[in-house]
Every structure is written in C-alpha cells, then in structure tokens.
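Posting this for the archive.
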Amino acid sequence: MSAALRLVWPGLRRRRPEHAFERATRALAGQRPHEALAALDAAPLDAATANKRGVALVALGRRAAALEAFCDALGFDERHAPALTNIGNLLLEDGLPNDAIDYFRAALVAQPLYGIAHRNLAVALKRLGRRREAVRALRTAARLEGRRAGGGA
C-alpha cells in the first residue's frame, strides 16, 4: 500500500483475496454445493481440492462422481486422510462397515490425530457390535476434537 493511501485512510489495510478453495469451503458450510463446485472448477487441482469437490458432489447426491473425486485426491496423495475417510463414509452408507473400517484405519495410519476418522471408525465398529472398540475410538475422537476446539479432556 502506498504511503499516500495510508495518509488518506490510515485504517485501510489490504485485504487478502479469497481463493477458490476458501470460497468453496464457505459455500459448503452454507449448504450451497453448486456454488462450491463452481468455485472448485476455478481452483488448481490437488488432493485437498479434489476431496472438497467430492464433498460437494455428495451434497448434490452424485455419489459415483464423488467417489471418483475422492479417488482423484488419492491420485495426488495416496495418504490424504480426508479422502480416505470420505470413501469410508460412502462404504458405511452403503452398508459395508468392514470395508469402511479399512479406509478409516488407513486414514488414521496417514494422520493418527484425525478426529473425524476416529469418530467414523467408532460408528462402523458399533454397527458391527464391537462396542468396546467403538467406545475407545469415540473417546479418542472426543479428546482430539476437544483439543482442536481449545478445550481439554
């Protein structure tokens, strides 16, 4: 910013432009998946963008395209924990908890502190009647999510 602008508007700061990925994240949070997809089409493709695209496609009910997007994310980074978890979610929703568990565990190998994968693993384990393991995974998720929120467990 020029010195002249600072003299005229002392409180004026440059605002960082919002990137396509950030616009997509905001659109998804506001439950506007069409807007998110449009923003992601403008974003450079990488694992995070491909995964976020998959999330938007799930919200639109386009599960096959979402699975393809999650697989694209893994093509960029085979250890991308969010994409592994999202594939596990699709499998769990399809009534395949054993297969889902494999993906949730792969996500946790890649990123052991990924609370979402611990929580979803707990759901899959509970569906299989493996309550003790489910409770352990749920406690881990709660501890990690509490830490992320600034609390303690």
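Confidence is low (pLDDT under 50) at residues 1-16. Residues 55 and 96 are 19 Å apart (CA to CA).
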